[in-house]
């Protein structure tokens, strides 16, 4: 399928131990930021848990002792101080992007989100044109909080709309009303946000073609400059998965999801959006999410917060998941990292192919080995790759290829 709702994994992968001080090999620090540098901040709090969600998030009743929203910004700033010590005399030239995700970041006071951004600027410095994004639930922002965030330096907001259909929102256990997301988008533009994204989920049990068409129409009418649309996947351990096992709801249909994707491409294309990644559309190149592009093109980033992943110079690591364990490690002066891995050249190549094939800018053919180029030729002949781009030495998916992106990747990595 062209796109799936992705999350921090429910179970963290295994890896090698991380030194108590979080130090990195000299080879990893040698060229930090050469391909761009970003900061991700994970805010693990939610007012309630959505039925489909497998993210590393916690409601108030799930937090337990040792962690709270009130002290969370201080913990993040403590990890930031540790990050500054780890990178030492090899810091990035500037921070190109900051992305605050969750959870629901805007459950924190806007002043705390401002304080975290100021801390990042003080430690490494924000580029003059830095993109600074926060995610938000539509019901967790107000005109006043949006103005505070914009004044603090946030340039972009990503709102979790998911659907305009009340019945679909109910199946997903979303708390906002059907029209609140587009109202929040308009409030964000009024507050001065340069870029506003709305997230959609398609293929929810009970969603009709008309429901999704109405969602797309609301998105377009809201005047946003970016849309993300993901096929629903059912994660083990979620309330939605349990309901499906009991037979209360049918499982998602791949055929329906493909139809929804084609509908999204048609409606958004007609409204002036262009795809730049399989699940993402923007009104202009300037509206594309630069932070995600940084991930997809193999740049460096530091992930702050429980469960957050980082990547610097081919070393990837991930923090302990629970906010209490995260705060406790930092209070002891220790790295919150649970484990890490050094990516091999083969692993880096595999990830490069998997991610860049999904981009409209494409993957250079010369990145592929001989079997991979043979696979690309087969995909072109099958109509899954753009023939004109292929002639220019690029692997670029056609619309049909986007529907079969995973199969194309498998053919390029024999």
UniProtKB/TrEMBL annotation:
The keyword NADP does not apply. Keywords: 4Fe-4S, Chaperone, Cytoplasm, Heme, Iron, Iron-sulfur, Metal-binding, S-adenosyl-L-methionine. It comes from Micromonospora aurantiaca. Probably acts as a heme chaperone, transferring heme to an unknown acceptor. Binds one molecule of heme per monomer, possibly covalently. Binds 1 [4Fe-4S] cluster. The cluster is coordinated with 3 cysteines and an exchangeable S-adenosyl-L-methionine. Residues 1-23 are annotated as: Disordered. SUPFAM superfamilies: Radical SAM enzymes (SSF102114). This is Heme chaperone HemW. Residues 31-274 form the Radical SAM core domain. Belongs to the anaerobic coproporphyrinogen-III oxidase family. HemW subfamily. InterPro entries: Aldolase_TIM, Coproporphyrinogen-III_oxidase, Elp3/MiaA/NifB-like_rSAM, HemW-like, rSAM, rSAM_sf. Gene3D superfamilies: Aldolase class I. The keyword Ribonucleoprotein does not apply. SMART domains: Elp3 (SM00729). It is found in: Cytoplasm. It comes from the Bacteria. Its main location: cytoplasm. Pfam families: Radical_SAM (PF04055).
């Amino acid at each position: 399928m062209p796109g799936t709702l992705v999350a921090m994994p429910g179970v963290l992968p295994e890896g090698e131990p991380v030194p108590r001080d979080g130090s990195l090999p000299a080879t990893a620090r040698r060229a930090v930021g050469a391909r761009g540098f970003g900061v991700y901040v994970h805010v693990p709090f939610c007012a309630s848990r959505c039925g489909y969600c497998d993210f590393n998030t916690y409601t108030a009743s799930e937090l337990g002792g040792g962690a709270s929203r009130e002290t969370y910004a201080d913990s993040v700033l403590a990890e930031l101080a540790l990050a500054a010590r780890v990178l030492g005399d090899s810091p990035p030239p500037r921070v190109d992007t900051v992305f605050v995700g969750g959870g629901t970041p805007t459950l924190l006071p806007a002043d705390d989100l401002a304080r975290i951004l100021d801390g990042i600027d003080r430690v490494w410095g924000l580029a003059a044109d830095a993109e600074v994004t926060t995610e938000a639930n539509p019901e967790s922002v107000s005109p006043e909080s949006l103005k505070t965030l914009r004044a603090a330096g946030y340039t972009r907001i990503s709102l979790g709309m998911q659907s305009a259909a009340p019945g679909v929102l109910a199946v997903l256990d979303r708390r906002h009303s059907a029209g609140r997301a587009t109202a929040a988008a308009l409030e964000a533009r009024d507050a001065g946000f340069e870029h506003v994204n709305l997230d959609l989920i398609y293929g929810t049990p009970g969603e009709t073609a008309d429901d999704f068409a109405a969602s797309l129409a609301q998105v377009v009418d809201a005047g946003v400059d970016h849309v993300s649309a993901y096929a629903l996947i059912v994660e083990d351990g979620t309330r939605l998965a349990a309901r499906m096992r009991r037979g209360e709801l049918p499982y998602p249909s791949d055929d329906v999801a493909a139809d929804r994707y084609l509908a999204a491409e048609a409606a958004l294309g007609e409204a002036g959006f262009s795809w730049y990644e399989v699940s993402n559309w923007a009104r202009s190149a300037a509206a594309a999410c630069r932070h995600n592009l940084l991930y997809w093109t193999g740049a460096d980033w530091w992930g702050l917060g429980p469960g957050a992943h980082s990547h610097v110079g081919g070393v990837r690591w991930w923090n302990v998941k629970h906010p209490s364990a995260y705060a406790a490690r930092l209070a002891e002066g220790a790295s919150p990292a649970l484990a890490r891995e050094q990516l091999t050249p083969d692993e880096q190549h595999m990830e490069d192919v998997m991610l860049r094939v999904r981009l409209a800018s494409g993957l250079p053919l010369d990145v592929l080995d001989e079997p991979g180029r043979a696979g690309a030729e087969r995909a072109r002949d099958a109509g899954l790759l753009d023939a004109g781009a292929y002639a220019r030495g690029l692997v670029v998916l056609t619309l049909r290829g986007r529907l079969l992106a995973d199969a194309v990747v498998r053919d390029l990595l024999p």
